[in-house]
Amino acid sequence: MTELERIAAALERLSPAPAAAPDFMADAYVWHADPDRLAPVAHVNRVDVELLVGIDRSRDTLLKNTVQFASGLPANNALLWGARGMGKSSLVKAIHGKVNADIPTLKIVEIQREDLPSVGRCLNLLRGRPEQFIMFCDDLSFGHDDAHYKSLKAVLDGGIEGRPANVVLYATSNRRHLMPRDMIENEQSTAISAGEAVEEKVSLSDRFGLWLGFHPCDQDEYLAMIRGYCDAHGVTIDDATLRAEAIEWQMTRGSRSGRVAWQYFTDLAGRQGVTIT
Q1: What is the C-alpha to C-alpha distance for residues 206 and 102, in angstroms, rounded to an integer?
Q2: pTM of this prediction?
Q3: CA separation (Å) from 84 to 12, 50, 122?
Q4: Level-2 CATH architecture, domain 14-214
Q5: Residue 132 · residue 69 · CB < 8 Å
């Protein structure tokens, strides 16, 4: 092997060629960078949309938007924000599952926040495909000295090429404006034009056409969630026992949410020897 061949081989090991695009036969994918690839997901971790209680307005709005998109009609990017554990990411996955059952060309691609700088390369694989893709970013937020938010604009605006017509972004966040208030205030205090600095940060959320808020559930909704899980999975328990145990469970957790309801149900199913599929 000549020296030039050895150098070429070393460079190829340092920067391998990106993997070929998948055949898009799966319904869901996870985007990985370095090297770039779309990894198919054989089984999506989700619940039926009918089991998501207390978020009717957000459910109906997101479902309508998703059906429009899957049908080739204009649709908005969506930001699902609000209380922890109230079903934001569950709703995105459930809506995809429901619409995909009728329109199989609707796919979902999950991208991690730390991989946002590579999002343009992901979009290039999806652009021009006959399928429609929900690009899903869960728990999206940005901290101090975090410039990843600039990469997000490639999905929301698409730069000079524009966002691919067959891609829409659904993101979840505990924050409505994606960045901590003290970060925005710091930008305001140190910038030459304070108003413009704040506008740069806040306008990121404004690029989502849909803002869907999620708020803490009340006790009746919390108990209804658990009863729905029990009925769906064949777990039998009388109302009085369920109420007493579920309330005690929420008190030990210090909160009440859809996530806490599922955690109690998981414990209950395990005690009864019921497998959750």
Answers
A1: 31
A2: 0.82
A3: 44, 20, 29
A4: 3-Layer(aba) Sandwich (3.40)
A5: yes
In this predicted model, what pLDDT tens digit does every residue of 38-53 receive, in sequence order?
Answer: 999 999 999 999 999 8
Q: Where are the domains positioned within the chain?
A: 14-214, 219-271
Burial group, residue 4, by CB count within 10 angstroms (0-12, 13-18, 19+)? exposed
Helix, strand, coil abundance in the chain, percent, nearest 5 = 50, 15, 40
In the chain, where does DSSP find H-type helix?
3-14, 56-70, 88-102, 119-126, 148-156, 181-190, 194-206, 219-233, 239-253, 258-271
**Is the model's pLDDT at 182 over the cut of 60?**
no
184: tokens are: 């925005």
d(CA 161, CA 165): 11
Beta-ladder partners of 108:
28, 134
Token pair recorded at residue 175: 């924050």
